[in-house]
Amino acid sequence: MKITQISEYSLPAEGGLPPLQAMIYEELMRRPDEVFEYQGEELLRVFPRLKRSALNWSLWLLSKTDHISKMRVRVNGKLTTVYGAHDAIKGLKERMNMQDEIEPAEETAAAQAS
User: How many domains does the chain contain in total?
Assistant: First the structure.
């Protein structure tokens, strides 16, 4: 990471993301139609100097703080977790004909309001 990149990020106490999480977040936002497998190789190829544990921990934290989404899916017969931009996970759910848990509540609230 270049020194000029560090100055662009705000401190977590001010509502921003730490530099590592910000880099990963930006990469996921550049790929709104892709999801990335936990323990997968794709993001490690993008960040070759990054340790697998640091990447996985960052993905988990980004998901926990609701910056990105995650979903459990079966890939080649194996149950795994995938991470991605909110749009990517939403698209995956639509492709798998799954409803988002939030949508029924929104529909009920809209029906009650009218």
Answer: 1
